[in-house]
Amino acid sequence: MFRDYTDDEKRALDSIIRPAKIKQGVSGRFKLRVLKRGFILRESGWSKNLIVNSWFDWLFQNVENAGFMGFVAGSGTATPDVTDTQLQSFLGGGGRFQEAWVTTNSTVSPRGFTIGVRCRADEGAVVGNVSEIAMCRGSTGTPNNSSPLMNRARVLDEMSAPTTVAVASDEILEVIYEFTFFAIDGATGTLTINIDGTPTNFDYEIRPVSMNHNNSWKTTASITGAVDSTDSRVTFNPSAFPGVGTTGVTRCYVTGETTFGDPSSSSTPAGFSTSNLFTTRVNGTYTPGSRTRDFTIRLPLNNGNIAAPGIRSINLMLNETANTTSWCCHQMLLDGPFLKPNTHVFDLPITVSMDNA
Predict the structure, then answer these.
(1) CA distance to 33, 255, 266, 278, per residue, from 249 (Å)
(2) Residue 283 near residue 293, CB atoms below 8 Å
């Protein structure tokens, strides 16, 4: 049935006309405290933040180490916007992390995981009426007005109305921040695969799997919930790049699984095998501010050749600090199987997008 096809012919035989779509929702919130000699003098309500384009742009263009660096505080009153790159009126910043934590919600919708931090400025580093706040990414050091922002928020009171928190020169400003990545839970779509010249539709649904497995949703190397030894940084290194490679469980791969895995499992998702890994990735062009990017990942000739009835699920993962670590495992369950023979490569286009939820 098969002759020695060229690579271009093999791609044409197993091409995806409609890509898989991954849309990640994110959210975060702040609380401010003013301390003196270890006592809490004043505390704000929770303020929902807006993730800004500059951090989304970073996630879509980098797979490397850049965690929470600290926070900056200001006295501006402008409404936060995704195009913000600085505070409206900078007062000061802080980078002394006191603690960090990670919590996973794998049981109740909306599922996801939250990384939280508690960070302080030095005494007298932030003085004035604080009405705006933002977290910064980067390596160790005290954030300043040029540090790259991850988000921005107005300070709110207990009734969610804009307010200010006064900080005197002999007081300390402390920020509590929680950031949540939401799981893709129940998204549907259609893959159209050109199999041997015949376009074939496969309806799919996407759900999270193994959210409590260390190498499927977060790793000790990249999303730790731990403060570094100098209290000046918290590791937090997600990205929007699909994970590929020749070894390890933190990669995109195909399986023959016909049902969804348990989202609360702490084990490797069912059906994993290194012989089913997508091994290479082509990155499409990214337009700053778009918060979306196209990728194409490949099963080579000798990978993914699952015995009949063949491939039924595709487990999709995103990279963390580097191409060797991943997070955010979701199972894309097809409504029927297809065979991928060892005479074909299989290229899967994926559109990844992220936005404020």
Answers:
(1) 41, 13, 13, 11
(2) yes
